[in-house]
């Protein structure tokens, strides 16, 4: 739970008493490789803070093709946010790519913390705002850049993920074929 405190205190300070109460809302979960935290059609009970491991958030289109929306690693938050905030069944999957641990927080717990502590409301607002900005940047970059530019940007932003994630997932995330990714990889050596 020390990691949780450090994570929150990057944005807002906490007293020991506040943190003792806040941490009671989180559940620690160990996750195996290939385990799903969220499965399409399920109730979305939690938002997850990654402590260890690498995860992918994706959906399947009508033809069964996988589309990766997000990767998540240490200190990143993830879930099917439409299902979580709207309290609807999931349309996304959250799968563990590399064994790890997450902290689980329910919507009820999140709302209670935000209403009881201005500092936590501020923390969640900053995290949600940063996530929205990152998502908007990802969408505009996907729509307006070449595969080469997407590859270079991903490599620059996430060099560790390039080494830890199978290339087929990187290709899906970038919206290119596996062959195109191989060509881009070769051209950038």
Automatic annotation (TrEMBL):
Domain Cyclic nucleotide-binding: start-end pairs: 29-113
InterPro entries from the UniProt entry: cNMP-bd_dom, cNMP-bd_dom_sf, RmlC-like_jellyroll
Gene3D superfamilies: Jelly Rolls
SUPFAM superfamilies assigned: cAMP-binding domain-like (SSF51206)
Protein name: Crp/Fnr family transcriptional regulator
